[in-house]
Amino acid sequence: MLGPGDDAALVAAPDGRVVVSTDLLLEGRHFRRDWSSPYDVGRKAAAQNLADVAAMGAVPTALVIGLGIPADLPVTWLDGLTDGFRDECAVVGASVAGGDVTRCDLVVLGVTALGDLGGRAAVRRDGARPGQVVAVAGRLGHAAAGLALLDAGVPARTDALERAVAAHRRPCPPYQEGPRAAELGASAMLDVSDGLLQDLGHVAAASGVRIELDPQAFAVGEPVLAAAKELAADPLEWVLTGGEDHALAAVFPAGVRLPATWQVVGRVVEGEGILVYGREMGRGGWDHFR
Fold it and tell me: What domain count does the chain have?
């Protein structure tokens, strides 16, 4: 309703409730300027916050951005960053409502996303129950494969390898599947930011259940397979533990007819923790303080 230019913005909340999420991105930790363009950084920073809102079953409406930048940062870099924010917001019909800028030794981004539930109940992490199924929408393992290629200094000499690297630079969350999952009766949901095992572990712990995954149920993408062949790596390891694709993982009642955009990969049973059939695996994924 009122964007940048005043001390604060005005954002409509037609549902009467506002979904709020925030993330912090630091240069050298979450992105590198020699690996990603400013436009990619803007798209990625917006995407990971908008995906959190979608994972609650809400439609994103606005972003507020805190930005720390070095004094010698080229204006063209900042232009690319803001273009990235604008274009990622446009995917979901949201906008940048405002923010703040300060001088800093590194590029630091603090992004807060707002969303509207449209009268639906928020889909939390503690609603998984034995007998339900676990399904995933969106890509898994692509960003991790791209990061591994960049870390190894392997040139993206094929289309598949280039797509893996592009996935690290710019995720493509299935935003529309969050509200759709809520309408289909999802009882628990989250976005996969730190790795599927790590994130589903939060659902299992919050719900007091065990989640069992079938490794044969996962469709491993061509970019992941190509990167694994190039680096002699296990592609399923990236699928299960790789983060930053911002896919959505949700728990549905058994028997619910899911659209083709959702892939059933496991089930909920009595117990605790995560089990992957036929594989000895820890939680994996990313934990800042492990």
Answer: 2
Dihedral of CA atoms 62, 63, 64, 68 in degrees, nearest 10, equals: -160
Q: How far apart are the first and last CA of the chain?
A: 42
Annotated binding residues for Mg(2+), written as ranges, equal: 7, 21-23, 52, 100, 191, 194
**Residue 173 and residue 245 in one domain:** yes
Q: What angle, 0 to 180 degrees and rounded to 10, lies between the N-to-C axes of helices 222-231 and 142-152? A: 30
CB 134, CB 265: distance < 8 Å: yes
Q: What is the mean pLDDT of residues 43-59?
A: 98
Q: In what order do the strands lie in the sheet with 273-276?
A: 188-192, 247-252, 133-137, 263-269, 210-213, 273-276
Q: Is the pTM of this model over 0.85?
A: yes
Q: What is the pLDDT of residues 180-199, one digit of tens each?
A: 999 999 999 999 999 999 99
Annotated binding site for substrate: which residue ranges?
30, 244, 286
Q: Which residues of 73-88 are buried (b: 16+ CB within 10 A; e: fewer)?
A: eeeebbebbbebbbeb
Q: Which residues participate in the annotated binding site?
A: 7, 21-23, 30, 52, 99-100, 125, 191, 193-194, 244, 286
Residue 240 counted as domain residue? yes
Q: The domain containing residue 258 runs over which residues? A: 133-276
End-of-domain residue from the set 116, 142, 166: 116
Residues forming the annotated binding site for ATP? 99-100, 125, 193
Q: pLDDT, tens digit, for every residue of 228-237?
A: 999 999 999 9
